[in-house]
Amino acid sequence: MALRACGFIVFRRLASCVPPDNIEYLLLQTSYGQHHWTPPKGHVDPGEDDLTTALRETKEEAGLGKEQLKVVDGFLQELRYEVRGKPKEVLYWLAELRDTGTAVTLSHEHQDYRWARLEEACTLAQYKDLQDTLRAASTHLQNKKQ
Ligand SMILES: Nc1nc2c(ncn2[C@@H]2O[C@H](COP(=O)(O)OP(=O)(O)OP(=O)(O)OP(=O)(O)OC[C@H]3O[C@@H](n4cnc5c(=O)[nH]c(N)nc54)[C@H](O)[C@@H]3O)[C@@H](O)[C@H]2O)c(=O)[nH]1
User: Fold this and answer.
1) Where along the chain do its domains lie?
2) Which Gene Ontology terms describe the biological processes this protein takes part in (predicted)?
């Protein structure tokens, strides 16, 4: 069976810039392994439902709880890749940070974080599937406004 993880693409809107440059995405850098960057996410615990995992991991890894997030309707992306020879599925929902000034608090699993505009976020993300997911989130947010 595939490993399963769930998380949130968290974004914030800056009042000082015009769309789409007003949107920044949150990426966290692992403190282990290759120090790769991803949105907050993590493994589903036995018996836990996917959205609960996404909320729990976002709280544990970034210190952002559900009261600080506004989940965006109609966005859910599934990534599939291999980790150490085993298939892994990752589900990402999309959520806006309600108060752009809210501080991010990292756990021991991460050593750094960045609020990045789309192109910088894609450079940090480095995996094509994650880059495509970030671009899909950006497109979804632009289409929603029309
Ligand atoms: N010391 C140590 N400890 C580790 C290591 N590894 C794990 N731990 C422990 O596990 C706990 C984490 O538990 P959770 O937080 O619950 O789970 P996740 O958030 O799911 O975390 P993971 O890091 O397991 O999973 P991924 O991010 O998926 O990275 C796995 C591999 O996939 C590549 N990869 C990543 N993202 C993408 C993508 O979007 N697209 C594609 N194509 N590939 C991608 C990436 O290059 C990487 O090589 C930590 O506390 C550690 O104790 C490790 O190497 N050394």
Assistant:
1) 3-144
2) AMP biosynthetic process; ATP biosynthetic process
Instruction: Tell the residue number behind the tokens 């480095």, with chain if given.
Output: 126
Instruction: Tell me, using a 6 A CB cutoff, whether residue 109 lines ligand 1.
Output: yes
Residue 47 burial (10 A CB sphere; 0-12, 13-18, 19+): exposed
Does the beta carbon of 45 lie inside 6 Å of ligand 1? no
**What b/e sequence results for 3-12 when a residue is b if at least 16 CB atoms lie within 10 Å of its CB, and e otherwise?**
eebbbbbbbb
d(CA 99, CA 103): 9
Residue whose entry in the numeric block shows the structure tokens 């050593």:
111
Q: Say how far apart CA 101 and CA 110 lie, in whole Å.
A: 20
Residues of the chain with pLDDT > 90, as a percent, come to: 92
What average pLDDT is seen over the chain? 96
- CA 146 / ligand 1 centre spacing (Å): 37
User: In the CATH scheme, what is the code of domain 3-144?
Assistant: 3.90.79.10
Stretch (H or E) spanning 74:
strand 69-83
